[in-house]
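Per reviewer request, we include the raw input and output of the structure prediction for the construct analysed in the revised manuscript.
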Amino acid sequence: MVTASVVEFTFSREPLTPTAIERAARPVSIRMSDETTLGVAAGHDFVEKCLTEDRSVYGSTTGFGPLVVFGGRADAEDQCDNVLQHLTAGQGPDLPVDVVRATVLVRAWSLSRGRSGVSPATLRALCDMLATSFTPAVPSLGSVGASGDLVPLAHVVQALRGVGHAYVDGVRMPAREALAKAGLAPLALGGRDALSLVNGTSVTTAAAGLAVASLRRSHEVAIAMSALLTDLLGAAPAFLSPSLLAAFGHPETVAVGERLSHWLEGTAPTGLRALQEPYSVRCVPQLLGAARSGVEWAERVVRRDLAGVSDNPLFFAEEDLVAHGGNFFGQPSAFAADVLSMTATQTGNLAERQLDLLVDPHRNAGLPAMLSPKAGEQHGVQGLQVVATSVVVAMRRACVPASVQSIPTNLHNQDVVPFGTQAALTALDQARSLRLLHGCLGVALRQAAHLRPGGATAPRCAELVEALAEVVEPIERDRPLDADIRAAADALDRFVERHLPGLVQGAAFPADLS
């Protein structure tokens, strides 16, 4: 069994972070404190006590959704089967493996709070799964995020029971075969285990968390590449005047300006540029400052979701309370995810315009058209720019808010719904598209530095060029650039993580690069 990291669930420590759930893409070992173990057992015992006292407990003694007015099945195991079977109806391509594994980690952490009444054995089974490469195959379509992510989570649980399909080491196969390959036993359920597993917004929270983690890196990448572009154009950094930016009134703009100045320390302007640069250079602090503000707000919301308990009902043994309510309603992360989509798209607009500036011989400070070493015979980054145009338009089209697309369903039991799952998955797609745009711009900047006599003048910008040059060769003759774009995107992520280690630990946006 491969172990990549250790996550300890405890009530007294900080909960999961967006960067922590990224690590669940690979096998992780989960350690639960004694306090957590006792709390889960106490919550489960309280549920069993409530059921022996003939209390009305939604989903345990009743039907589901609008059928709550009818009694459920008498046998607890049969009732667990009941909740799963009718929800196993998802459609569409499978969710990415990293999203599903992050989902299971988020769900396990919520259940570990002891408020869902899940059995210790069921929680342990989720942890055992995460210690292997086993990953349920989960359709991407089916959740409205209003009673939790019922349909996709049902597919998760079914795979753990040996029903449907799953992945082991990235290979899709029947779930029962996958369990055997991973050394896992099929999951047996009782009590309210099944409802506890599906009745939360864990897909939404996981996807939004992954989007946050990706966009934090991409924000830093955008700053570093904007500085490199400024340096290669020979532009003067007058637009970064601290007094000017402070007068704007937004501290995030000041912070971005300080970091741009950090990257540009030692730059040697040519003095040949116009008094005012295009907005794709001059207004970078204002644009990326606003993007930072949006991502920071969304991250605060997502961190609260990661710290909370998403289920219904919740059980409070110390109060002898079974609380029925709406703690599975994914509106907070729905709003946050839509903001993430908007910030990703506008950051993508910036990258696409910066690429256009770089390839235009009328505006790029004497560099050749399309950054071609011999225009006509060689085409430089011409095809790459077409790809960037396609990607940014796809991002714009996907940037319609999902969080306000409410439509009643479920016999009007779910008469207003947040569609947080769609919002979060879209935000994650947007974040991944932005990485590709940055990969395109990274290849172009590397080529511009190759063609510019002397290359970058600011030492830190030169270091960024070196990082890109390690994975992208100069374009002397036309060649396929598809792999170069992806390699540049990966190199840019590694570069900012190396310079800003706080990103890896999931700290707040760093204000100081010294």
